UniProtKB/TrEMBL annotation:
InterPro entries: Aldolase_TIM, GH, GH-type_carb-bd, GH97_C, GH97_catalytic, GH97_N, Glyco_hydro_b, Glycosyl_hydrolase_97. The lineage of its organism: Bacteria, Pseudomonadati, Bacteroidota, Sphingobacteriia, Sphingobacteriales. Residues 307-462 form the Glycosyl-hydrolase 97 catalytic domain. Residues 562-657 form the Glycosyl-hydrolase 97 C-terminal oligomerisation domain. It comes from Arcticibacter tournemirensis. This is Glycoside hydrolase family 97 protein.
């Protein structure tokens, strides 16, 4: 019996030892969102793998997380040193945006490994994210990062495809199933995946991007993988106007960076309510806090702008058009802005030499123009090429500041490798030091820089109204995709405001000349409510706007920054009805795709005992044929009121509520 007992004890000890060894080799950690709807499971063994669940449905199957450095692979045969959890909640007060305050509430898991690195996971109610953190003494080269997203099942996809690392103004290619996407096909982020049976939407993005290349997605056999442009080895000037830095050769690594740092967040947003996508601020919340202490000089606003309509002013008493860009012409735009309380004029390419911005166009006395604007209380943004600005960033920004410019529009980066991302960081930082605002164009999508440097008041990185000059891609379907997908990354300079509106059957691209847009006039007006654009263009000709003083009343009043946003109803790619408040005024915008819609506005969100005047701009009864037709009516509403809105194909409506 004693011998049997000893043998059993030896067997038990062996089993316990094996179990302990297995636990060391394959440890499991679970992290849940504060509302318990999202769950991340992390497995650490020979490799690190994570999976993501939403309401118990697995969205991301076990997927590898790793980073290959020049002398070490993070995540390979990882040994856990310690793991700790924390719960965090705070209130963020953005200087501008969709809401005056944001709640950042998350649960966090930090797994520290031997060899001086950690992996941090966060679970918010809006989504989950992870990032590497390293604590090395010396700088490192990142040869590659393995960010795998094994999407479970066969959801549909809204996949902004690209074959290059140079453009972010691309349309969404819609797939009924991810299995239809060809292996190797690359897309920019954010990209969205939609489960038709459950209504769940899954978005993949990134946040807090600094000193590192931007992330793309690439379709693999069984997953989507992060993809990055390698570090440039050889560049030369070329492409547009021979002023773009074009990469001819690349290194065998994607980043060279400090050994002690936080890497960008890999972000997974999940919801079964499309409306949540319109207000999702997870990328902003994940990004670093502002480095600009005094933000009083950062003033978002609307701008008149000459480029989209080729500076043509039909009916004006002065010569106009691109060949007549001169001091008199820009004063005309300033007078228009002043009459309608627009804060800015955006002066695009042509005011100076594109290669040397200190060589102004002799027909444009830019100091006189800026001084005239100052007297009229209209500030000026000036366009420039990124490479020209960077030849001597400090000196060039001093020159622009000396002219009296309030901000700059920096164009044609056409790259998002590490070097180009660092260009954008430097411009934002030095511009902030000199109290200049920045609007980035021809650039990578926003991924957190706008929080650290709020003087970056807008980004392009969206297929915008300019494409109406060339093709049919900027259409109402596209208009109802970008606020749900692209806008999650941050503000977007779509440049709305067209007064030359057409239905699908009558639209055609026009360039050069006065272009048209697809969708109704009220569809276009609603973009000022639905789209996040702290620096917003009025893209059309001042002489066209002056024909419609009732519309100019609305365009003068609608803010670019709000205190509160409420999504009343919405469906990805089909329609959206959104209400935004600024102090005691409300602005409601409705937009539809190519299908006509009937929506109901319930004003129960208004406070008790308050009656407001509602100025309603809606599609006219024949707007399905004449997209420029609209009706403007006025009535009183309170929190017991309900209003029916009929939207024509490609239609829209706006309601301006004021005391």
């Amino acid at each position: 019996m004693q011998s049997l007992y000893r043998n059993n004890m030896k067997l038990l000890s062996l089993l316990l030892l094996l179990a302990a060894s297995f636990n060391v080799c394959a440890q499991k950690y679970v992290l849940k969102s504060p509302d318990q709807k999202l769950r991340v499971e992390v497995h650490v063994g020979d490799s690190i793998r994570y999976s993501v669940f939403f309401k118990e449905q697995e969205l991301i199957r076990p997927s590898v997380v790793s980073m290959v450095l020049d002398n070490l692979t993070l995540g390979d045969q990882a040994t856990v040193k310690k793991a700790k959890n924390r719960n965090y909640k705070s209130v963020i007060h953005p200087p501008y945006g969709k809401s005056a305050e944001l709640i950042a509430h998350y649960n966090e898991l930090q797994i520290s490994f031997t060899k001086s690195y950690s992996l941090v996971f966060r679970a918010y109610n809006e989504g989950v994210a992870y990032r590497f953190v390293t604590d090395f003494k010396d700088s490192v080269k990142v040869k590659n990062e393995i960010a795998s997203f094994k999407i479970n099942g066969s959801p549909g996809a809204f996949y902004p495809e690209t074959g290059t690392y140079t453009s972010w103004e691309v349309p969404y290619v819609e797939y009924k199933s991810v299995s239809d996407i060809k292996a190797g096909q690359r897309a920019i982020t954010p990209a969205l995946f939609a489960y038709g049976s459950t209504g769940i939407k899954l978005m993949i993005a990134e946040a807090d991007l600094f000193a590192y290349p931007g992330m793309y997605l690439r379709k693999e056999a069984e997953a989507f993988s992060g993809d990055w442009a390698a570090y440039p080895a050889k560049t030369e000037m070329g492409s547009w106007g021979n002023f773009v830095s074009v990469v001819k050769e690349r290194k065998d690594f994607i980043a060279k960076t400090a050994g002690k740092r936080d890497y960008p967040w890999r972000v997974i947003i999940a919801t079964d309510n499309d409306a949540d996508l319109l207000t999702n601020e997870l990328i902003y919340k994940l990004s670093g806090p502002s480095a600009v202490k005094d933000q009083s000089w950062i003033k978002p606003g609307k701008a008149t702008w000459e480029w989209w309509h080729d500076a043509m002013l039909p009916g004006a008493d002065i010569p106009s058009g691109m060949k007549n860009r001169n001091t008199v012409l820009y004063k005309y735009y300033i007078d228009f802005a002043a009459r309608h309380k627009l804060e800015y004029i955006m002066i695009d390419a042509g005011w100076s030499n594109v290669y040397d911005l200190k060589k102004p166009n002799p027909d444009v006395d830019i100091q006189e123009v800026i001084g005239y604007g100052a007297r009229k209380k209209v500030a000026v943004f000036l366009w420039c090429v990124a490479t020209s600005l960077l030849t001597d960033l400090d000196q060039n920004l001093d020159y622009l500041k000396g002219l009296g410019a309030a901000g700059i529009k920096v164009d044609f980066f056409d790259r998002d490798d590490q070097e180009a991302i660092e260009w954008m960081e430097r411009i934002a930082k030095v511009a902030a030091e000199k109290r200049l605002m920045v609007n980035f164009h021809g650039c990578a999508k926003p991924a957190g820089l706008q929080r650290r440097y709020p003087n970056v008041v807008n980004y392009e990185a969206v297929r915008g109204a300019e494409c109406s000059k060339w093709d049919y891609t900027a259409n109402p379907r596209h208009h109802l995709l970008i606020p749900f997908i692209r806008m999650a990354a941050g503000p977007m300079d779509y440049t709305p405001g067209s007064m030359r509106n057409r239905q699908k059957e009558t639209f055609k691209p026009v360039d050069p000349g006065l272009p048209f847009t697809q969708g109704t006039r009220c569809h276009e007006l609603a973009m000022y409510v639905l789209y996040d654009q702290p620096f917003a263009m009025l893209c059309d000709s001042p002489t066209e706007y002056e024909k419609y003083q009732d519309i100019m009343k609305y365009l003068s009043a609608v803010p670019v920054s709000f205190d509160e946003t409420r999504v009343l109803s919405a469906r990805l790619g089909e329609y959206a009805l959104v209400a935004k408040r600024k102090q005691k005024e409300w602005f409601i915008g409705a937009m539809a795709d190519w299908a006509q819609r009937d929506l109901k506005v319930d004003f129960s969100f208004l406070p008790d005992g308050v009656t407001l005047t509602a100025e309603v701009y809606r599609d006219g009864k024949d707007a399905d044929k004449n997209a420029e037709q609209y009706e403007h009516t006025t009535l009183n509403v309170n929190n017991r009121s309900v209003m029916d809105l009929h939207l024509a194909p490609g239609g829209g409506a706006v309601i301006y509520l004021h005391p």
